[in-house]
């Protein structure tokens, strides 16, 4: 309990300390014009109250990650608490905040455009393709998983027993309903659906986390393990080493590149730069707190990491089922239903904004204005078609694994962009550089270690190769930043 409470206190304190430092570092100015005022279009550029943009941002970035990822990542043991806490404070929240500031000062530009400004046109073109691919993959994951959760809850034999390939008719019907919602939410102005229902879902997400927190603190039934060492408690530590596998299993909740693609959505809706810290830094800290709570209850509910590993094996790694079991047992049937509703809402609200972000990224690099519904439809149809192809052609495990690596690779690139941004302005570039080095090593070593990628058995060679690629990227960035410094002087 001491480790958990200490980490919780650090996360809360960071908002008022490190968050304020980042405000000063970036020179936040309430008098500076914002995109919602200078580029108002009634579709994507619309000023909204801060409490609304905060809840929308929280729902945009949350998804299944801080719940499913935290439950599965807790299998590594209490070391997961440290990654969530320090990753969230110094990496994830700083990443989200500064990426949001950069977009805010670039007229709400999408991530590939801001990356191109500070890392060059070649990286911009690569990031356009990579970002759209990730957004479609995220949309596919967050379309299939809530549909599966709802279908499992309904359990209608008359429909579920009739199969179309590996998909029951019940599942196909639910997929269709969610897809229709995604299409409508992607095409309509941001304040029509997203601006109205997301705050409700955001409150549900926070209520769900507070309910689990109350169980942990006041029920007296559960003991949260303490951090005593860096021991890897996962069932197969040789195959799944802490570095890099924990760092990709728990992404949302610590750091996630997907967040930087969502920040431009709210950068176009803020009324003042002063709202950036609560909306960007504050939403990420809130997500880290949610992940910390779910990691704690996962270990406490099954009496430690070893019991959690046994439960993961028993349930075949189905985090959704495990969350349902925890909720039913700790909160009762009625409140458990609200928890599952919150989980489904997290997935759906990240899925629709993923497709919306993909539309905006494509519109930015094609130079297409988005006031016209016809042009929004032209861009959106291929994106939804690609998402459906992924759902029907890739198993969930493969989708999630590729999403995990692409997600953290995007975070890596964003951190290098942040480093270049700070360097160009003569500010403390270590704020971006140190996290960038960590995430570069995580992503590069993951390529050689992950069973779904190279899967090298020689761990020493895999880590050396990851280190060599990290060093090469660092040297490249040092030369670039020196050139930038000379051009400024």
TrEMBL record:
It comes from the Bacteria. This is Uncharacterized protein. It comes from Alistipes onderdonkii subsp. vulgaris.
């Amino acid at each position: 309990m001491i480790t958990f409470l200490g980490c919780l206190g650090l996360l809360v304190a960071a908002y008022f300390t490190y968050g304020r430092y980042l405000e000063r570092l970036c020179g936040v100015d309430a008098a500076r014009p914002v995109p919602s005022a200078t580029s108002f279009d009634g579709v994507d550029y619309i000023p909204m109250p801060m409490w609304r943009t905060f809840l929308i941002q929280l729902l945009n970035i949350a998804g299944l990650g801080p719940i499913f990822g935290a439950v599965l990542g807790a299998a590594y043991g209490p070391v997961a608490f440290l990654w969530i806490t320090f990753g969230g404070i110094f990496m994830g929240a700083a990443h989200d905040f500064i990426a949001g500031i950069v977009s805010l000062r670039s007229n709400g530009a999408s991530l590939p455009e801001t990356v191109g400004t500070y890392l060059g046109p070649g990286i911009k073109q690569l990031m356009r393709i990579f970002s759209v691919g990730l957004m479609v993959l995220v949309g596919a994951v967050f379309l299939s998983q809530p549909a599966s959760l709802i279908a499992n809850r309904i359990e209608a034999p008359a429909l579920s027993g009739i199969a179309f390939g590996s998909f029951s008719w019940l599942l196909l019907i639910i997929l269709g309903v969610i897809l229709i919602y995604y299409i409508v939410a992607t095409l309509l102005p941001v304040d029509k659906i997203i601006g109205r229902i997301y705050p409700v879902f955001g409150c549900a997400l926070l209520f769900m986390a507070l309910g689990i927190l109350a169980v942990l603190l006041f029920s007296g039934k559960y003991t949260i393990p303490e951090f005593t060492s860096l021991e890897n408690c996962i069932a197969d530590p040789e195959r799944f080493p802490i570095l890099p596998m924990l760092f990709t299993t728990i992404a949302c909740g610590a750091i996630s590149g997907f967040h930087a693609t969502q920040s431009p959505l709210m950068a176009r809706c803020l009324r003042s730069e002063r709202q950036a810290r609560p909306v960007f830094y504050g939403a990420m800290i809130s997500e880290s707190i949610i992940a910390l709570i779910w990691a704690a209850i996962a270990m406490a509910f099954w009496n430690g990491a070893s019991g959690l590993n046994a439960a993961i094996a028993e349930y075949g790694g189905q985090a959704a089922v495990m969350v349902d079991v925890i909720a039913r047992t700790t909160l009762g049937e009625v409140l458990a239903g609200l928890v599952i509703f919150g989980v489904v809402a997290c997935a759906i609200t990240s899925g629709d904004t993923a497709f919306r972000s993909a539309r905006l990224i494509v519109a930015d690099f094609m130079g297409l204005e988005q006031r016209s519904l016809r042009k929004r439809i032209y861009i959106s149809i291929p994106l939804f078609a690609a998402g459906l192809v992924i759902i029907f052609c890739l198993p969930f495990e493969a989708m999630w694994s590729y999403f995990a690596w692409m997600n953290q690779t995007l975070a890596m690139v964003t951190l290098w962009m942040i480093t270049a941004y700070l360097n160009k302005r003569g500010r403390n570039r270590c704020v971006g550089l140190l996290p960038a080095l960590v995430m570069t090593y995580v992503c590069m070593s993951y390529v050689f270690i992950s069973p779904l990628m190279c899967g090298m058995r020689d761990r020493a060679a895999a880590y050396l190769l990851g280190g060599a690629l990290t060093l090469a990227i660092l040297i490249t960035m040092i030369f670039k930043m020196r050139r930038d410094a000379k051009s400024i002087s």
